[in-house]
Amino acid sequence: IESTAAIVKDTVYIGCFDDHLHAFDLATGKPRWKLKTGGIKAAPSVYEGKVFVGDEDGMFWCVDAATGKKLWDYETNGEITGGANFAGSPEAKTVIFGSHDSTLYCLSIKKGEVVWKVKTEGPVNGSASVSDGRTFVAGCDSHLHIIEVKNGKTEAKIELSGQAAATAALHAGKLYVGNMNCEVQGIDLKKKDVQWSYTPKKAQAFYSSAAVTDKLVVVGGRDRTMHAIDREKGTKAWIFPTDGRVDCSPVIVGNRVYFGATDGVLYVLDLNTGKEVQSLPLGEGITGSPAVAHGCVVIGTTD
């Protein structure tokens, strides 16, 4: 399991490389239903009683959340590794996702019909962020794309220092994304310019998506380290070493940071100091991210 779970009320939805999308009871872990798909690396998204997820065969699925019945599907020409996001008016709601066929798609939620699609110059790995009528996506063309949700018109392209595999995190008019050139970059959306770049001493690529607070940008690196960066200055606040690369995206809950690493350990850190509160060995390796709801942490392992 490399997918990240979605938790809605009492149900956990998660994809797996057994070529199925699964639904489990949150309290007991008992199966509710499963749907035959391709192998799933992407995180499912749940909206208005429907589950949306893409698979490694390039198929994007819309499924009834209660029964697991397929409502519609849409075929792209590349694997889908990022989750879906949503936009539009109540009368014209849409779902937005990227594919490795170098395209960002916007489909109608009701029937899966194309509203618009935007071609990029490289595969889209992460999920699209949405805010104020715009969607933001960073990809393997080393650019952040700012696109109008209504019509798919590109408002701006901001050059990054490297290809991006992660989802861009959006907070207070700023956007934060790590890249394969071993940097995390903070972008001012009003100025449409890179505000700062953070490069650790023994840097490796960043595949983790950041979690952001008013003060910190918290993101994992392939240098086997969780990094906390000052959100305004782009300087190191604290670091925490692990025994495996951290492709997992951290989740912040209160003053705790939850994440896993390829050493198979689930880590819990103090948000302010970066000190370990708890560590829990789970399996061979963790690349999917934790989901937190109703006092529970749900996370998958590669074994």
Task: Report on the architecture of this protein.
- The structure is a single chain.
- By secondary structure, this protein is mainly β.
- Helix content is 0%, strand content 49%.
- It contains no helices and 30 strands.
- The strands form eight sheets. It has a four-stranded antiparallel beta sheet, with no helix packed on it. A four-stranded antiparallel beta sheet has the order 5-6-7-8, with no helix packed on it. It has a four-stranded antiparallel beta sheet with strand order 9-10-11-12, with no helix packed on it.
- It is globular, with a radius of gyration of 18 Å.
- It starts with 5 loop residues before the first strand and ends in a 5-residue tail after the last strand.
- The mean pLDDT is 95.
Number of strands: 30
Individual helix count? 0
Order of helices and strands: EEEEEEEEEEEEEEEEEEEEEEEEEEEEEE
> Mean pLDDT score, rounded?
95
Low-confidence residue ranges:
none
Oligomeric status: single chain
Helix content range of the residues, please?
Answer: under 10%
Strand order of the largest sheet: 1-2-3-4
Strand content: over 45%
How is the biggest beta sheet arranged? 4 strands, antiparallel
Distance between the termini: 7 Å
Secondary-structure-based class equals mainly beta
> What is the C-alpha radius of gyration, as a whole number of Å?
18 Å
C-alpha geometry: globular
